[in-house]
Every structure is written in C-alpha cells, then in structure tokens.
Write a structure and sequence with these properties.
Layout (H helix, E strand, L loop, with lengths): L12 H21 L2 E2 L5 E3 H8 L4 H6 L2 E3 L5 E4 L4 H10 L9 E10 L11 E10 L4 H17 L5 E7 L6 H13 L7 H9 L10 H8 L10 H16 L5 E2 L11 E9 L9 E5 L3 H4 L7 E7 H10 L12 E5 L2 H16 L4 E3 L6 H10 L4 E5 L1 H6 L1 E6 L5 E5 L3 H7 L3
Parallel strand pairs: 1-5, 7-8, 12-13, 12-14
Antiparallel strand pairs: 2-4, 3-4, 5-6, 6-11, 7-9, 9-10, 10-11, 14-15, 15-16
C-alpha cells in the first residue's frame, strides 16, 4: 500500500478549515500594512541558495533537495522563501519602484530534516519582505505586523525574543571573540558544533544540545560588540517597540539559522513551548540584494510555518469558522423523480445556492441520514407525485418541520425560511 513520503502530510478536508482561516488572516494583515502578493517558482538555480543562505549552513550542506534537469542545470526545491523573492526583486527591476517595496507569499518549502511537530520535509510558509528602507521604524512595523497577525488569530501566551547580531563592519570582531571563547570548550562540544566553530561560529549559540547550551549561556553577547550605527539602530528599535506596547525580551543567544541576517533578528514562540516551538521569526538582511548582484539595498522580512500555527490554534482550543457547505440536500423517491433531482440541483447552484443532489439507489430514510451527515439546513424531497404536480417537499433539518410548495417558489423559500 502506498503512503505519503516520510516528512510529508495530506491536508485532509477536516483540516482545511484551519488553513483557509489562516490564509484569510494573512491576506487581511498584509492588506492593512500595504503588502502585495508574489509567487515564485517551486525550484530555483541551486547557486541562488548556496550563495544567499551560506555554504556552511546545515540547510545548504544537509537539507536541500537538489537535482540536475535534462539540460544539465543544477536546480533546488525552494528551502526558504526570502532568496527567491530577492531574485525576483532584482530580475524585474523593482528597485525602480517607490521604496520600500512590500511583498508577501504563501508557498511550500522543502528541507530534508528530521520531521517534528508542525514541521515537515515539505511544509507551508507565509512570509513577507520589505525592500529599500533601513530605518528601525520599519523593523518595528514588521515586528508589529507579525504580532498583530497572531493576535487576529486569537493566539495568546506568546513571547517575542529580540537580538542584534551586528553588521559586516562590527560582526567580524565579535565572531573572533566568540571563537576564542568556544575554543576553550571545543573538546566537549557536539560534533555539529565542532564544525560550526570553524565554519559558522554564530550558529554555536543556537545549538539545542544540553552541553552546548550550557556553554552558550556564558558566551560573549553580540550587543556588547555592536558598532555605533548598529547600537543606535537597536536602541531605537527597542524604543519603538515600547511605543507600540509590544512586550519583548532581548535574547542574547538568538541568531536565526541563515547566514544572510544582519542587525535585527527576532522570533515569536508560545511561552510554554520548547526549543523547537518557534512559530515565526525573521530579521534584517541588508547585504543580501548586493550579494546577489544588485545595488546595496536594506531589507527585512518575517516568515512563519502554517502547520505550526494550525497546531497552536488546536492546542489553545481556539474556535475557527466552519467552511461553508451546501445548504440544501435533495432527496428523491422513485425513478421518475431522479431526473428532476439533477435539474433542480443545477438550477439552485446556478442561483448561487449550494446543493447536493443524490441520484443513487438509497432509500429515503438513508438519504435523510446522509443529509444529517452533511449538516444540510434543508432537505428538498421530490417524489413521483411532486413531479406530476410541479411541487417539492421542503424540510427544515433543525426543526423537522416540512411543507409542500410549488417548485418555482423554492429559491425564495430557501432565502426566507419555511414561514
């Protein structure tokens, strides 16, 4: 028997209500903050990701789905959303538009990693990016947008973590200090951190292994090594967040998992969650457009996994709107009425009234049970007598009241009720 590949999942009909609810909130908040939708290809040139994410990252080295097409090109299924949007910004000359350019996306993401709660090898992500403005006011707006999105879903008991990891001017000095500190504990580090010490020392702070976490707790803090410009930017950002009355905590170990981040990094997670509970995060990547061949362009973005959002809605017991279903179930008695069911269902649908027409061989009792299972508001019953008299029986499935009416009055009655 075939099964979905490990690390993938089917989004079944009973789950769709969560997804549609989340998507609608995404559209609403993006409209409020002036973001426009962009959709990029599912796969890109592999070099786009190796250059933007970083050669020494776990994503590039271990997690990307890369293949060679028939033309000999190296292509990679999208492992994150920012680099493709940056590529589109450059390719389509968006730097000529009024800045900042604000874009959002909802897309599948592919990473070969150990599946965990709410995060699969194929998962779905909502993200938004703003290009062309380096002011800390934009940082505050982006963070506020994320917070308001979660508030619109009625998610609560969330924490906002914030840090600054500096820029290419001040970060080298901090990394040298960090490597010097960690070199004293090199023998006790996990195998991944021993590699990070040489290739990607900033990620040492992000390791989830208990022994490495203990070492990280006393590690030098990036905010103590910021250049004057980064220090001013971070202080102003904190001031704006206080003006917006957003609760936040400076987390000195917060670095994010991608090499392109600069200055501001932030994450939002449930207060009771563990190390893998983050439901959204982002930060600045002021050098990325230039790294990809464009002019220096400040930028900031945020992304969140939709599976984890749905998981947290369930954990917190938050009621969501039920997806609309057909209001009318059409049952019949006798072969002569079967053709009338087909015509009647089509007539109602074309009038904008959802209808389910049954044309199988079930008894009326079985059909009414099916109407209950579909949670239909009304059942229309057509028998041979109704066909001859051009009438139908209209039954209210809540009160069990039913009346016989001319077929021509059915649409109006469905809109106004039986009385």
């Amino acid at each position: 028997m075939y099964r979905a590949p490990r690390g993938t999942s089917d989004i079944l009909p009973e789950e769709q209500a969560y997804w549609r609810h989340i998507e609608q909130k995404v559209v609403n908040v993006c409209h409020l903050y002036g973001y426009e939708r962009i959709d990029t290809p599912t796969f890109e040139d592999t070099r786009l990701f190796s250059r933007s994410i970083g050669e020494g990252t776990d994503i590039v080295e271990k997690e990307m789905y890369t293949f060679e097409d028939k033309g000999g090109n190296q292509l990679t299924l999208r492992p994150e959303g920012t680099a493709p949007v940056c590529r589109a910004y450059l390719e389509h000359g968006m730097h000529n538009l009024p800045q900042p350019v604000k874009l959002y996306y909802m897309a599948p993401i592919f990473r070969y990693e150990r599946p965990q709660a709410g995060r699969y090898r194929e998962h779905y992500q909502f993200g938004y990016e703003a290009y062309g403005d380096g002011a800390p006011t934009l940082d505050a707006e982006v963070i506020d947008m994320a917070w308001q999105f979660f508030s619109s879903l009625n998610l609560h008991r969330l924490s906002l973590n914030l840090n600054s990891i500096g820029c290419r001017k001040c970060r080298p000095g901090y990394l040298a200090t960090l490597k010097d500190y960690y070199s004293k504990y090199a023998q006790g580090l996990c195998s991944d951190c021993k590699v990070r010490l040489e290739r990607n020392p900033l990620r040492l702070l992000d390791c989830k292994q208990p022994l490495c976490q203990e070492v990280a707790s006393s590690a030098p803090r990036s905010i103590n090594y910021l250049c004057p410009e980064c220090d001013e930017h971070f202080n102003r950002l904190q001031g704006y967040l206080k003006l917006l009355e957003l609760p936040f905590e400076v987390n000195h170990r917060l670095v994010r998992g991608l090499d392109y981040y600069t200055r501001t990094v932030f994450e939002i997670k449930p207060e009771a969650g563990g190390a893998q509970s983050t439901i959204g995060g982002g930060g600045r990547y002021d050098d990325l457009i230039e790294e990809l061949g464009g002019k220096p362009t400040p930028a900031i973005g945020f992304a969140m996994g939709m599976e984890r959002i749905a998981l947290n809605l369930k954990k917190q017991g938050i009621a969501i709107p039920v997806l609309p279903r057909p209001r009318v179930f059409i049952a019949y008695i006798g072969d002569e009425a079967r053709d009338e069911v087909v015509k009647l269902a089509a007539r109602l649908r074309r009038a904008g009234i959802g209808a389910i027409g049954v044309v199988g061989g079930k008894s009326l009792k079985a059909q009414l049970r099916q109407a209950n299972n579909f949670a239909a508001s009304y059942t229309v019953i057509v028998g041979e007598q109704e066909v001859r008299t051009n009438t139908v029986v209209l039954r209210d499935m809540v009160t069990s009241e039913q009346i016989t009416i001319p077929t021509g009055e059915l649409q109006g009655r469905l809109n106004t009720g039986l009385r």
